[in-house]
Amino acid sequence: MEHKKIVLATHNKGKIREFKELLKPLGIEAVGIKELMSIEEPEETGSTFEENARQKAQYYMKACQLPCLADDSGLLVDALDGAPGVYSARYAGENASDEENNKKLVRELADVPFEKRMAHYACSLLLTFPDGRELVTFGTCNGYIQESPEGTNGFGYDPYFYLPDYKKTMAQLLPEEKNKISHRGHAIATLLKKLATYNW
Q1: Active-site residues: which are they?
Q2: CATH class of the domain comprising 4-196
């Protein structure tokens, strides 16, 4: 595949690192929007992950006039009726840290036994092109929320997201392991399949 460039519609260093690793084998150069220009982040007003991803992708694509890939992802906990959902990054308030969000999550689940702490990560990926075309994919990863953090890899809720099949949290997996089984990994694998036969 010839060399191609995709702009990542995120300022999140963890996401940028993951996307660079996943796209590099296909000869696709992924660059964070900050590497190209200084621009404020758009407001996320969508009620679904896909709506938020589309808002971000189109906003940055119009600014840089290059194909732009945005993801919106989050954690959905069954016992909390799907919360934090689209508010995962700001669960404990605007500009909340990962630690603050995790503390709130653990607090909300204090009275819920482990076997009822089922949760899943969900990710919508949206790649938009300057000519108006777009590709949309979706991925999920199932697990449980444990009471205390384990692992130093990953970011967000990863240290609390327990994977029964691996007997580890998401944050205990090596990056290459996580990329194979994560919600973002599944969504991007589907996207890459589509891109392989896509004319752009």
Answers
A1: 72
A2: alpha beta
